[in-house]
Amino acid sequence: MLQKESPNSPLGRNMLWAGVVGGLICTIGEAVSTFYKDRGLDTEAAAGATAITMVFLGALLTGLHLYDKLAKHAGAGTIVPITGFANAMVSPAMEFKSEGLVLGLAAKLFTIAGPVLVYGISASVVYGLIYYFLR
User: Fold this and answer.
1) What is the DSSP letter of 80?
2) Quick check: pTM over 0.90?
3) Rounded CA gap, 102 and 99, in Å?
């Protein structure tokens, strides 16, 4: 009954758009990286500056309600790059900003990012300890 009532998803078109938009976002990231390298940053510093810039752009576009419009048409192409992480952080915060800065905005800002950050930090500590003792 569900399959009869739900519309068929144009899988090929969706995959094409996801690839095009995801590739475009990554191309913009490469352009930003090249910009920083041309300004004298080494590869590692340019990578950090690029990540910061792309997160900022993702958060800015989310705040202007443009990233969600793009995601509506591009699907997975917008969630894979680093800008998708920024969108995932900012969207819940914007939704609950009416509840105040502390209990709404600040609390919801880490709803998505919190587990990612906790796992990343915990994994890096465990990896560091293993590396230290095996070395």
Assistant:
1) S
2) no
3) 8
